[in-house]
Amino acid sequence: MIAILTGVRWYLTVVLLYISLMTSSQGQFPLTQNVTVVEGGTAILTCRVDQNDNTSLQWSNPAQQTLYFDDKKALRDNRIELVRASWHELSISVSDVSLSDEGQYTCSLFTMPVKTSKAYLTVLGVPEKPQISGFSSPVMEGDLMQLTCKTSGSKPAADIRWFKNDKEIKDVKYLKEEDANRKTFTVSSTLDFRVDRSDDGVAVICRVDHESLNATPQVAMQVLEIHYTPSVKIIPSTPFPQEGQPLILTCESKGKPLPEPVLWTKDGGELPDPDRMVVSGRELNILFLNKTDNGTYRCEATNTIGQSSAEYVLIVHDPNALAGQNGPDHALIGGIVAVVVFVTLCSIFLLGRYLARHKGTYLTNEAKGAEDAPDADTAIINAEGSQVNAEEKKEYFI
């Protein structure tokens, strides 16, 4: 009887323990998170359990090969290492990650039944350094240039942007192609534009943006070399050339290739006085000017692309005439004085006429009403009212 009771007690204990384990296992669930890593980097895969009663944890790869069972390594791969192993966590690292490592990894919690959690490992393909093709030096002014920028190995496909003088160019062509491994992409972009002399020495930049580059884009640069015909301008040393003084005419010429030594001519022919007109590099020095130097001087510059010229019309001024022009204008001053005198005389004449008209006729003190008149004008006014019944005595003054 005692043996039966002991057996029943042991059976109940086992059942209660099993129920306790089953109840406990219902609250356990492995927790994982997706991981993104750059190709060649290191990925950390972590599996956690909030509550665990010594139940084992396991990591397996997309091929369902066991990588780690608790702290025991199951797959011979030197890139895979244990980071941390406890009843609540199993973390492993995968170094030198390749594109083939991408996929879904599984963490298993060996309860009854077994519970799992998935973590997707995304591997970013790093784009190769871009290359610019299509430039052949030199390029002639006015030619149409086509530049192509290409980069391979990006995953997902990289973005290509063009810049010229630090200003982005939007009107470009873009092409994306899948690589042979069917995982990465080759992208290319083509830029078309017509060049001019202002493009000489300008840097055209191709920039590759991709999330694997950590906000540090890869760039390729092409410095343009444009050949163009010369541009010519003549600059005199003084704006008013004077007889007897020296004059220097400087011929400014720009072009690529650099123009050859310039050619000076006067009125379509050679310089008439080589002893007095000396050419030094791009300068024409006339040692002292005279009236015979008047004429059209021409500077001509030539390079392998073409020829250009500029003209300067020389007028030699008389120093005395220029001095007179720079002094006071006596004719102008005389004219002003004459006008002032004329206006003054006219004013005096008009004032005299005015006074004469008012003093021509007036009543004397003998006229009626003139006794109280203070002046001749008042006397005339007083006398007008009494002209009908009174005789007037008038005096005339000339």
UniProtKB/TrEMBL annotation:
- Residues annotated as signal peptide: 1-27
Establish whether keyword Disulfide bond is in the entry: yes
| Record GO biological process | homophilic cell adhesion via plasma membrane adhesion molecules
Q: Which CDD domains match?
A: IgI_2_Necl-3, IgV_1_Necl-3
Q: Where in the cell is it found?
A: Membrane
Entries under InterPro entries matching the protein: CD80_C2-set, Ig-like_dom, Ig-like_dom_sf, Ig-like_fold, Ig_sub, Ig_sub2, Ig_V-set, Neurexin-like
> Which UniProt keyword terms apply here?
Disulfide bond, Immunoglobulin domain, Membrane, Repeat, Signal, Transmembrane, Transmembrane helix
Task: Determine the domain of life of the protein's source.
Answer: Eukaryota
Q: Which SUPFAM superfamilies does the protein's record reference?
A: Immunoglobulin (SSF48726)
Q: For this UniProt entry, which segments traverse the membrane?
A: 331-351
Q: Where mainly found?
A: membrane
Chain ranges of the Ig-like domain:
30-122, 130-222, 230-315
- GO CC annotations, alphabetized: neuronal cell body membrane
UniProt family annotation: Belongs to the nectin family.
The protein depicted here goes by the name Cell adhesion molecule 2
| Organism of derivation | Rhinopithecus bieti (Black snub-nosed monkey)
Point out the gene that encodes the protein: CADM2
